[in-house]
Queue: 4 jobs
Job 1
Amino acid sequence: MTLKDKHIILKTEDLSIGYASKKAKTIIASNINIELKKGELIGLIGANGIGKSTLLRTLTHVQNPLKGHIFLNGKNISEYLALDLAKAMSLVLTEQMASKNLSVFELIALGRQPYTNWLGNVTTEDSNVITKAMEQTNITNLKHKKCFELSDGQLQKVMIARALAQDTDLIILDEPTTHLDMYHKAYILKLLQKLAKETNKTILFSSHEIDLAIQLCDTLIVMTKNKVVTNQPCNLIKEGVFETLFPKDLITFNSDTGSFRVKK
Amino acid sequence: MNTPNTYKISFLVLCLLLIICFFANISLGSASIPNSGILKTLIGNTENSFWKNIIIDYRLPKAFTAVIVGSGLGISGLMVQTLFRNPLAGPFVLGITSGASLGVAIVTMGASLFGGVLAGIFISQWSLVIAATLGSFLVLMAVLIVSIKVRDTMAILIIGLMFASITSAVVSVLSYFSSADNLQQFIFWGFGSLGNLSWNELLILFVLYTIGIFLSILSIKTLNTLLLGENYAKSLGVNLKKSRLIIIIATSLLAGTITAFTGPIAFIGLAIPHITRQVFNTSNHKILLPAVFIIGAIVMLICDSIAQLPNSDLTLPINAITSLVGAPIVIWLLVRKRKMMF
């Protein structure tokens, strides 16, 4: 590992993603080279069906890449043991949890599972990590509530706290702002920005909130039909990447305000 | 709000209740024996051989069987409900009960079809147990092989139900062609019975049951992680295939052997976990597992005491009693709380 790579948490080399069956390979995107640095908030944006989820599934080792490599902390992700991967990368998924009968504390405590003993006992140290995660996400007052009593926005904060408690360098969130109102969309993304700065963790999320992502992210990964571009938001605006995101018949990108407008 | 302290009190009360129910169960029965006589017999301080026979050879093994059946079925129900994320699941969903009944059906009703000499060998006390064990074991193996190949847990659930339909169809065909006597024997097995176990049989049941309980305790951590869903469990470093296999083996060992020895006992596996969740108001398996154990044993002991119809010569089918007693409890609990959680 060279000195320059030290601050790089996740790196892909010539990555191709898609689905392989016995008969044929379906390549969804190829030639992906991205570098996620420590303490950065990174947004992954792109149109529906462009392959955001497939990319996230590949980065999180749920499915294998068709070609190329993914390095997490300098080590190829396919060489990780399941438990070690759990200590290096935590997830916030779109799927609903199976049971909402857990209390907020119990749920966040599940984030400590890679560290606890065979019975899952929470030690004082685990408790401290959990308490800190709740403070960082402003949910200490919800500690004893049951998850089915929470609003969608509160629940999302709890899930983020759970990922924090897992104590990993990288947190990946799959569309964390769906189902939320405009205020809470901004709130959650702002919270992620704060967490990346305060905890020096790398946070990657996929989202359709392009306007907010442009304002809040350090880096954006933009997936278009032909290529995957990574850069700072202001540079991407200059390059005119956002104009190529969608078909041009309905909405246009205004590079002065950094937002989309409906055509009159 | 439940704190560790209120849990402790609840557990203490439940343990007391379990002990009371255990002794009440022993002291109640068709033959009326005074309490002092029961105590004397238990500590081996009596000359009354009639009491000895009844208590040591019948009531005591029956009470132990009730504890094993209630706790074992309850815990296997708890595990499948969490594994399949389905509050309606019970041990039967893996096709275990129907596998056992297929085995018994082949022995009781198929024997006459296969001819005279074999029939004599086939129909004995042990043959039913062996047949039921083999039947549930075969269905279990089929489900296991499928579960290794299939990734989706819901698919396993449906495949288990399909196996159940196939076996029950075979059972129907067998009963259509069998004689009235054989059919009756099969139906009697279907009523379930706790009282047919000798100490030797109880020992075998206990050994297998202990292995099942041991595996379920090992699964506590995984079961809690599964409350988040399978993908989250994976992201927390859980080896899904391995843990799923252990949970299915534990469930099958518990439900399979219990069904083999006592016949199908309805309802306990489905209802005990729900009753326990309502009492303890938690989904944490570290609390639920021991609680299901105790509550299952208590409910089974009570059901058995009712089935014996104290001071009469009649014994009702235990299978009917468990449903008659348990179903209203679950309905009442759910109507009161209006939420079906798991």
Job 2
Amino acid sequence: MTARVDPQFITELKKYGEVTIESCFNCGNCTAICPLSTEETPFPRTNLRLVQLGLCDKLRESLDPWLCYYCGDCSATCPRQAEPGEAQMTMRRWLTGQYDWTGLARLFYTSAFWEVGSILLVGAFIVWMFFLFAGPMVTDHVALNTFAPVERIHYGDWVLAAFLSFFLLSNVVRMWWFTVAKDSKVKVPFSVYVTEAWNLIVHFVTQKQFEKCDEEQKGFWQKKRWRNHWFLVSGYVLMFVMVVGFLPWFQTDNIYPIYHPQRWLGYYATIVLLYGGFDILWSRIKKEHQSHRFSHLSDWIFPILLLLTTISGILVHTFRYLDLPLPTYYMYAAHMVVLTPMLVLEVPFGKWSHLAYRPLAMYFHAAKAKAAQLQESLTTAPAAAD
Amino acid sequence: MPTEHIKVDALVVGGGIAGMQTALDLGDQGYQVALVERQSSIGGKMIDLSKVFPTLDCCSCITTPKMSATAHHDNINLLTYSEIESINRNGNGFTVQVTKKPRYVREDDCTGCRSCELVCPLEVSEDEHEFGRTSHRIVYVPFSTAVPQKAVVDIDNCIFCGKCIQACPSDAIDFTQQPEPVEIETRSIVLATGFETTPIDAKKEYGAGKLRNVISGMMMERLLAPTGPYGRVLRPSDGKMPASIAYVQCAGSRDQTLGVTYCSRVCCMYAIKQAMLLSGALPLAEITIYYMDIRTFGKGYEQFYQNAKAMGVEFLKGKVARITEDADQNPIVRVELIDEFGKTRVTERQHDLVVLSVGLLPGGNPQAKFGVPVGEDGFIQVPDYNVFPAVTSQPGIFVTGTALGPMDIVDSIMMAGAAASATASYLESSNGSGKEAQSQPERSVEYA
């Protein structure tokens, strides 16, 4: 077995974030303090070591960076201030770039010009779309579905969903290829993929790894990071499903009574997105939590786009409620201009791809562990029979 | 009160091993020396230790004769229980204001018979040397080998019952004593202000001092010393003889979260030494040393380490990240163990007693009092460490021992010789207004 050593790897990784891995003297404090690190899967020191040694292929094949939920204990107690927590965050950005075959993720993470430029470009494209396809602006009352006919927007939604699903899923396949298929130590049989699939759903729905991250607090409500993240995800997924799946039901010209699910589901999602977005932005500005002390451009873009989308959405609703036709139409267009790049760029190529990679990593990790266990029982079974 | 005046050639600040040895070396050469010590006895940290590495010689047996020699030297004027208030440069020399704190016992009259101690009805926790593991009376001789062997009254806790006054055969007790100012005129100063250890509660992850069976290396020295609080090694929470003892290395040094980036140089060796002594004191106990690197660089040190390994002391590589305890107050250490093949394993191991190999911090605040610059680590910075390690940037002020940086006893004694020698040369030079000033005018450049 040969390993490729890339002496420039650490320099390459520095393009993705604050990396001070050189300071690490491999004492193992980070691994021992980590509440998620286990006897079988010790990290983050092992990953930092891979970077020090320039073993980029090995890191690409590692799921460990995704198992970290960045409580920051490792960085807070590191005797060398090598910032293992931020190093793992940076590795996740790098891995996102590695999984993405288009190379766009790498460009967005390493170049502010490309990151901001592409957002502006997609925004401009949406403006252009409105010029081409928007309906007439009725000015005596709000007729949003005349200006932006729901079936046309819905059609656009499907294109958008197909676009991001295609790229995200193809990247997911590459992730599987690097981390599971290429692993020569363990072959995962098909049955294990089926029996372990619950991991994927459970971790996507609950994000329960966060629970272990905040050891000092007890319970869902006390564990602030887990709670806020969970509500944010619930609002985001709800809004995504309503907008992409059921837009004709969601975008209506007549205003339903308040007890109608369209109203209160929308309000719920809006409130948690607003709170979640502000919470992240505020914490990053104040550098409150250990995990928010360093902020890469992608860390800023994400809450900013989210907040702009939410606020413009609230304004669309308010203007429509106040029966102000023109502000409603312009704000609706603005809403689309922010929302589209957020979904098209951030989900498959940016920070939001972690909504797929994190639960998948838990799933793959569990599958590999199970397969390894099976292999072991097969090799030791004859001995046991004696 | 009239101020007492003392005129000397050299003032040594600090009565630890480095200060005592410097004072002795200068006194033996015929210089008049004043030695000022903050505590009621000289001996410093060394007198609290059990044995010295790597020879395992008895520490008291080395220190006590030095203490006696210092106290009885014709050329050494010993001022214990005294604080330096201010230093003023006076021509080529210095005028130093010192306050002798009241012992409430007349030093000249006290014979150290301990009659007062025997009748004193109150006891308080002994914190200065025994970390609260035992107690002392309100009027007491600091410890059995204290020099000077004179009683001192813990006035804050005294109830003035007067029993000691009645018991004292030489009428030495005097509750009316006031702080006495002393003015020392000296031609040179040697700083031997020594070190403190990292506080045991400095690290939250190590229980912040709240875990009863997690003690510091200095506490273990006391447990191992024949003069220690229990006379044997018992763990604090329940007095059990520990069957499993762990050492956590670098528990107060090489750690940027504590602001201590440097290696304390002595912890590896004192942990190994204690492990060896424990193997003798508790032959059945398992002893584990968790380390990042073992640094055994002195003469005979590596062999000492190899001997400890051969004796069965377990050395495990990995920095302990967290110490917790179970229901029986047994400490549990969590550590990533890294074996020689790079294989790694996160594990939690339970021990009966954990010793933190705490690091060395600068003692006192020499920068504020003496105007000598300190480095980033807080220890005194000298301009030319490699060539004149004892010579500070202040002409006439010298430094010795751990005031300069972490060092062991052997190095401290060597430094004391170096400081005494540098001080003597200075005293002979023109800047020191020595008698041979004319013959070596250009020497003065070195100290400018």
Job 3
Amino acid sequence: MAKRRFMGTGLPYVDLSEVNGHLLVVEGSDGVGRTTQLSLLRTWLEVQGYGVIETGWTRSALVRESIDLAKAGNALNLLTFNLLYATDFADRLEHEIIPALRSGFVVLADRYVYTAFARALARGTDPEWIRRLYGIAIEPDLVVYLRVDVNTLIHRVLLADSLDHWEAGLDQYPQLDPYESFIKYQSDVIKEFDKMSDEYGFTVIDARKKVDEIQRELRAAISATLGQSAGADVVAPTVDE
Amino acid sequence: MARLHEKHTFPGRLIIVEGIDGSGKTTQASLLRQWLVSLGVPVFWTEWNSSALVKSSTKKAKKDNTLTPTTFSLLHVTDFADRLSYKIIPPLQAGMVVIADRYAFTAFARDTARGVHPEWVRSLYDFAIKPDLAVYFKVPIRVSLRRLLSARMKLKFYEAGMDTGLSKDPVECFELFQSRVLDEYDRMSEEFGFHVIDAVQPIEAQQKQFRALVSRELQSYLAPYLAAKEQKTVNESKDSTVRRAGTQNDG
């Protein structure tokens, strides 16, 4: 396995040599089908005997109230927005992700710090600052980015649900209507993800494909990652769909 | 960003006091406030960890004891960001003197003493405004401990750094934790150009030094207020001479 590393200055009081396991990240906007893909992956991994823990980009118990309070009052300025989400992430990192990795689990992360980067950068945050802020994060073994264009995305989002104030970026473009704002904000988010794809070496999958095709590509990428880390004598699991 | 290292351009002035718990910095800051107010200076007072935004989270986490050094640090910087945007910058824009009882440096000292990366915590606070005057009230642990214990008999859990697990005994833990904090403050004195006041001295002696320091460092800002005050004092003393003369006559 590649040596475990932090993405920046890290957590000086955490000994990484004890943090084994596998950290696999699936990124992509809401509506690309991450949830479906992740639940298929979980079953597939468990069938092979891997212990799996899923972690999301939802709100942890620690700051849920603060985030709700801030969103309700629209008092969330850019700084506090970024910091509250980072606090939430840190709580999950230390109470969920690191303990699971220490115990040798495969951690399937439904979004990771890259979501925070994309959202923050689309809102005009200093890129260097936000990266240093998340320097506490553990570098994943694999990041798969499920990519769709903004037009496909809005159709899916509209069919699934109505437009959310924050996902539509209406805090950024209050002068626009929800549709225009969504297109503008999500295009910016996608642009940031594209830039990061090169920088961080994401495995990019075209999420306009069929569910089983996407799943096959995901499994291939994961097999390669797990196979590498488990050593050459382990045969990469086959895709059985 | 890096505002913490650049001089701000607001018409107001930012004075911050730092020191370990029991250093007497709050007493000194409030005495300074009294003096500035008496000069007619518009003063705005702000304290560490006082915004409504993260209060519920901090309270809950402290109760459940689930805070790690990192989440502890992040909750504080979030609180600070909220306070900076709504409580510190607007009064500075309005030309007031903002007195902050603790500032970003408290986080640098405490969070580093708890084990986060010193560089990381500094980068978090990059957005902070550089103070016009930063005063560090330096005191040995023994003295601060004596002051705290005589005032309220009991040390607070986080104040004593009980979360660090350095010792099960609150007093011993306080000594161990606060001496780390003290080391961090000493290290920062040069890094951030603190003015150091020996906080073992009598209160009034410290205050005299503090006021002299403020008069010097905020000279251009305070000049009109000091001039007006002088004028007023001259008039008052004339008045009282007249009055005294009158009283004598009455008697």
Job 4
Amino acid sequence: MTLEIQDVTKRVGAEIHIHETSLRFLPGHFNVLLGETNAGKTTLMKLMAGLDQPTSGQVLIDGVEVTKQSTQDRQISFVHQFFVNYPHLSVYENIASPLRLARISSSDIDRRVREAADLMKLTPMLERRPQELSGGQQQRTALARAIVKDSKVVFLDEPLANLDYKLREELRSELPQLFADRGAVVIYATSEPAEALMLGGCTATLHEGRVSQFDETSDVYRNPVNLTTAQVFSDPPLNTAVVTKAGGRCTLNTEVSWELSGPQSQLADGEYMIGVRPHHVLPTAISEGVAIAGSVQVTELSGSESVAHFRVGEGSWVSQSEGIHPYQVGESHTFFMDVSKCFFFAADGRLVA
Amino acid sequence: MKLRSLAPILYILFLMLPIYWLVSMSFKTTNEILAGFSLFPQEFTLENYAAIFTDPSWYWGYINSTIYVTINTIISVSVALPAAYAFSRYRFMGDKHLFFWLLTNRMAPPAVFALPFFQLYSAVGLFDTHIAVALAHCLFNIPLAVWILEGFMSGVPKELDETAYVDGYSFRRFFFRIFMPNIKAGIGVAAFFCFMFSWVELLLAKTLTAVDAKPIAATMTKTASSAGYELGLLAAAGCLTIIPGAIVIYFVRNHIAKGFALGRV
């Protein structure tokens, strides 16, 4: 089963919510929509689910146009970020509801509901009302309802965003398996780059209503086609700076410049935007590292890694490194940038090297 | 007793006094009432109530009132449900103005509409029918019900609608099977307010009826002068008028505050 959108746009009044977008989702693995809040993830999903009508363009399921088809007839599942269940029905009836409407025999319904409940570890709660459950259990009820129905397309709109850390980890590792053998197209929206990487599959990066890239997740991460993709797919934020290339040398400012090698040295002379991921800017010396000094503004220390925000001239930079590094806020510190991992973007944002 | 608990007790006594007086009067004879001040009925009598339940001109007043109030409540709530849903879920041209305009209907005194209604209903042959009063009361009750229901409906996330559509519910099925059970408190409160306003409204009900649909309140004002002032009888009739309201309020007692805030708590 495949889901395809062709030249889909969405305009509300004078505002463009989704710019012309064409995507083709193949079944078998996870498809992630990655973008920050308001990037248009939910809007795009609703357009595909038929909960909203595109201004122009077409939606196809298995090659058949369904743009005008109602949501009810599309055989899809949709799990929202907020736990949405039917408050007046028991967990059992909540899970059974799509099957009841499909007029399936009650013994079949019972078997499938118990199977889904078992997968989602809800068996002891079947007779309770959704409000009597914890947030995680409520969301698992919603997920069970999505699983029990043999949907062609499953939409998961930040389903783990409102769950606590432990549950998130647990469900995140279970989710891909759950849908993998069902042959459904799974589309998962998230605002966290780390989550996209953990889920694998394919990722479409979304920014201000535009899909900037859609490919295998690791490909999108390693070879972003443009600056937008690299920025969307980076957390902490991507370090960017304007550099001037002249001959074999690249200059960031009066103090920082380095010798280029490989394809980067083949670029035409001129100004470029460079992008360096925070974990390629380290507080200790590395080979091929270019020293860059800045004053430390904010530091975040977790058990296993240190994040430092520092300023270099007008630009703000982020360094992310393993281990604990005792930074002094306000003091100057020398960081080392791995220039071999540097992206070079042209003035229009295209990746050039 | 502490001083600070005295104030609420006094206040409650003050509130209950007229009701107590009415109940106490209903068990007295008219002579005793006219004789002067007496705190309790000296000659306890149920004759006043007996008179009401045996005289058709009295008990039909209650039946008439109940009929048009029920019709009105059913019409108001069933018309307001889809209207409130539209206001709560869709954006359309002028929706906010229309929504506010609805409420301004309640700001005009009913007397303003008595004459046009009287003339209109006489012309189309609706005068002195239950449906005439029920429809006239809709003018005030539908806007109120829309406001109350809209508040309750907006408390239900739109995602619930979407989830139901995804699960395969048609709109009609979703509305009756999923949505209405979720706002049943709101429906109860809206019905209560419609019932209450229609039950206590006197002017339109009296103007638009003569014999066949005469409401209890009108009956009370007319019978008062026939054989002098039958105060005991009137008091008994008054007591019976309070009872339906008391019963209805019992069912919505937990949601009534939200209703007064038009569902916006």
